[in-house]
Amino acid sequence: MHPIKLAVLLALLYSAGSAMAEQPSCNLPEKIPAPKTLKADCVNQTKPDSFALALSWSPQHCANANADKHSFQCSQNRFGFVVHGLWPQNSQARNKCDHPRNCDSSLVDNATLQKTLCTVPGVELIQAQWQKHGSCSGLTAPAYFDKTRELFQALVKPDLPSLLNPEGYVSAGEIIAAFVKANQKLGLPREAIAVQVAKKNEFSEVFICYDLNYRFTACTTSRTPDKQRVHVTLP
After folding, report:
1. What digits encode the pLDDT tens for the residues 65-112?
2. Which residue in 43, 3, 53, 14 sits closest to 205, CA to CA?
3. Residue 35: closest CA among 139, 142, 126
4. Burial code of 12-51, b = ≥16 C-beta within 10 A, e = fewer?
5. Most Cβ neighbours (<10 Å): which of 45, 49, 126, 174?
6. How far is CA 101 from CA 41, 77, 87, 136, 186, in A?
7. What is the value of pTM for the model shown?
8. Domain residue spans in the chain?
9. Which residues have C-beta within 8 Å of that of residue 76, sequence separation ≥ 6?
């Protein structure tokens, strides 16, 4: 096919895909499996000095995920941005174990699972986020996930596929600019957003950073340079 015609075709496909970006589908299973306690990788009960809301790009996760293990997220439903977790942060941390982590290993109750699955799409994921992060937030599990959903729902998620060039690339800075523009009413600043990439420069998630009162603050996490082009997996 001629390169120009191919570029036009790809642009049309991205445009069609963009219509799905803000229209995720989520259907809860008839029976939600019970969570299981997970083994702690490290324990750190230091007090947090900020929070990072990690918004995962579901199509990228599902492109590499185990289809059976992640069926709720990747085959039973269709998502764009979902919550990976709300993470208490230590600005002096050098690795994940320097952050507040694994302060409690209690199980998340069924009512909280039911209310949260369409935001944090997996029972094991919800349990892991509570054990690793939420248990160090100073909140109960229901309150922690209430706050997670509240922050996620308050944010306008930009139409990511519409930003892509015909090859499926966009710069990290353009993703940040799209979040800023979409959330002008909230006053979301550029410094409170950090783009993260996976292997092969695939866009994986974006961090939105908050202070201890859940007001936007500058991210202290690592970030992808604004000019770096990243590839975005389409839904």
Report:
1. 887 889 999 999 999 999 999 999 999 999 999 999 999 999 999 999
2. 53
3. 126
4. eebeebbebbeebeeeeeeeeeebeeeeeeeebeeebbbb
5. 126
6. 9, 30, 9, 6, 29
7. 0.89
8. 3-22+38-231
9. 27, 29
Residues in the chain: 235
Encoded tokens for 33 = 């499996």
Structure-block tokens of residue 222: 């690592």
For residues 209-220, give the mean pLDDT.
Answer: 98
In the block, residue with structure tokens 């409170």: 192
Let me know if domain 3-22+38-231 sits in CATH 3.90.730.10.
yes
Pairing of strands 169-171, 229-231: antiparallel
